[in-house]
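Sequence, please.
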């Protein structure tokens, strides 16, 4: 057992709720639990009562003629219907809130590998698992500020990004923080995201809940929620030596010839301008549109002909799959997001 596992505490049903969303999820869970219990008692209790009340007492007993009671028939159908619709609507409202990302959210990149986590902040700071003085593994710890929304952008990568071992490949993981009641699959070949806002200080467990191979059970992490001032001091200390992700992306923008086809001031050249493109709807050739988010930008960098922007020719931009590693793609995306 890891030395830090005793930190986990729980009440009768759930780990302590550390976010507002978690409290809402607990309320839905409690409602479903108690309404199911009441329904069970009414149903099984009623069945048991009628079994004894109308038990056949002799071989000559005949079943009495039973007439319909339309009021009761309506109620025992309508009341469950109302409860089901109410539960669905309540759950949808909470789910919609969970999937609507705040515009001012702090962003952290999460990289899942067999079998560990890596956290990359916008200033280039990277957090990975370590080893303590006694030789025991210490989990990678994502530090976040209390009371501020945090958006995590997740990707699955190989253990050795530069290697060509066919057995080393990205696999499916799942990012789960029980105290926050949030979970999202981390899918190879694309970005997935979720957000949360810690309302309490403390250390909270992070698990992979999708079987990802022999080391799945050891793929553990931590999320540490601290006051905003402490977070700012921690983030500023020992920032990434190569500069922020946006700065790294700016250098790639120049060195990888992006500068010749994509302007930063809105000017139309060979390809769409990067100015203010992130977060907007982009019309695409063939009809329809797509939101310019991290996943769309990733696809457009690696396979630019998958969804070609309307009004621009296909086949002009070469695919960068195999030419850029995952970290370089992240940096380029962060640079594009910074161009306002």
């Amino acid at each position: 057992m890891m030395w830090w596992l005793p930190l986990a505490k729980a009440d009768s049903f759930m780990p302590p709720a550390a976010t507002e969303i978690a409290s809402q999820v607990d309320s839905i869970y409690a409602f479903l639990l108690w309404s199911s219990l009441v329904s069970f008692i009414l149903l099984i209790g009623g069945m048991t009562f009628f079994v004894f009340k109308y038990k056949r007492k002799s071989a000559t007993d005949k079943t009495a003629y039973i007439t319909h009671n339309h009021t009761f028939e309506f109620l025992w159908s309508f009341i469950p219907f109302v409860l089901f619709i109410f539960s669905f609507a309540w759950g949808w409202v909470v789910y919609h809130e969970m999937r609507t990302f705040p515009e001012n959210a702090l962003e952290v990149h999460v990289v899942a590998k067999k079998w560990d986590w890596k956290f990359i902040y916008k200033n280039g700071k990277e957090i990975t698992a370590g080893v303590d003085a006694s030789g025991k593994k210490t989990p990678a710890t994502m530090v976040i500020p209390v009371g501020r929304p945090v958006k995590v952008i997740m990707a699955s990568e190989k253990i050795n990004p530069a290697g060509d071992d066919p057995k080393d490949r990205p696999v499916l993981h799942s990012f789960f923080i029980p105290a926050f009641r949030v979970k999202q699959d981390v899918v190879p070949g694309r970005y997935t995201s979720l957000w949360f806002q810690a309302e309490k200080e403390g250390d909270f467990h992070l698990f992979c809940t999708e079987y990802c191979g022999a080391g799945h059970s050891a793929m553990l992490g931590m999320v540490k929620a601290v006051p905003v001032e402490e977070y700012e001091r921690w983030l500023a200390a020992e920032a990434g030596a190569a500069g922020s992700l946006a700065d790294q992306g700016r250098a790639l923008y120049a060195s990888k010839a992006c500068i010749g086809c994509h302007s930063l001031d809105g000017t139309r050249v060979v390809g769409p301008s990067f100015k203010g493109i992130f977060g907007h709807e982009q019309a695409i050739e063939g009809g329809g549109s797509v939101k310019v988010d991290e996943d769309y930008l990733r696809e457009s960098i690696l396979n630019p002909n998958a969804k070609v922007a309307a009004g621009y020719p296909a086949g002009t931009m070469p695919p960068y799959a195999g030419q850029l590693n995952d970290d370089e793609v992240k940096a380029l995306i962060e640079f594009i997001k910074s161009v306002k």
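Residues 245-338 form a domain with the Cytochrome Bc1 Complex; Chain D, domain 2 fold (CATH 1.10.760.10).
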